[in-house]
Amino acid sequence: MNTENLLEIRNLKKYFDAGRPALFSRQMKYVHAVDDVSFNLQRSEVIALVGESGCGKSTLSLLLMGLEEPTEGSILFEGRDITHLKESQRKEVRRKIQMVFQDPYESLNPTQTIEEIINEPLLVHGIAKDKKERDGRVTKAMEDAGLKPAEVYLKRFPHELSGGQRQRVVIAAALVLEPEILLADEPVSMLDVSIRAEIINLLAELRITRQIAVIFITHDLGSVGFFADRVAVMYLGRIVEIGAMLEVLEKPQHPYTKALLSVIPVPNPRLRRERIILQGETPNPIDVPSGCRFHPRCPVAMPACKDSDPPFSVLSETHSAACLLLVK
């Protein structure tokens, strides 16, 4: 393993049992939620995981947290295989990999004070058994998350806070364990536009001050353009394109990436792209199309696309010439 890589995902798959298509059928059907995903995450790096709803982004984050068991593939953290750990071993890893969930309204216990919510991870993991040390950690996590001064919020309950403040509490509860990786699952989708920028700026600042690597899951490619180092575009369980953020924004190779970028609002009319409106619905993840799984909706699909499904790195190279000519 490369010493710079904090996390390595290799050929990761997650299939959910969908039962038999008919009463007496012997064939089992499966939902291909995550299907052969591979990428690396370096220390203090930010990767934006982008795709429309149902493409497998959140399932991938649950696999990395150990909340779902992979069907195939491997996950290496700091050179250690954490794919199939016992619960006692998993607890140790979760101190270093924390998650910020999408909905701050549902992820906080309404019966606990903010102090109790942020203090709970320390108690669960048996860290800082001295109360004074715990209080110091809680205060620092809250202030790093933008809840200043911490004393104002400690005794409040979640219903007494705004949506942005609640999301900061969720971030503080993750920071209190001093993790090395933060999995942010659409952390701004439930917030007002003005608050979204504050939370994204906060994560960008934490990446520098705490040297935390971030996997930022979103369906909005435009919101993380200045924040992420790399972007991975998912479609129907697979990563179809991955690369440096600026390269993908300026020279997207895959037709699906081009379509996502074309609908991002741009204030300057001279810089706007021609909109690419994809036809039809996303295919059923139980009955994945043959060949390239994007070909039923692809505006530049060729007959060969129905038969071959190369890896995303090869797909970008083989499709780029044809797609650049036809999509532009």
What does this structure look like?
- There is one protein chain.
- The protein has nine helices and ten strands.
- It has 328 residues and is an alpha/beta fold.
- It has a single domain, classed as P-loop containing nucleotide triphosphate hydrolases (Rossmann fold).
- The strands form two sheets. A six-stranded mixed beta sheet has the order 6-7-8-3-9-10, with helices on both faces. The chain has a four-stranded antiparallel beta sheet with strand order 2-1-4-5.
- Helix 3 packs parallel to helix 5.
- It is globular.
String of helices and strands: EEEHEEHEHHHEHEEEHHH
Could you tell me the CATH topology label: Rossmann fold
Spatial order of strands in the largest sheet:
6-7-8-3-9-10
From the spread of the alpha carbons, the general shape counts as globular
The main pleated sheet reads as: 6 strands, mixed
Mean pLDDT over the residues:
86
Number of domains: 1
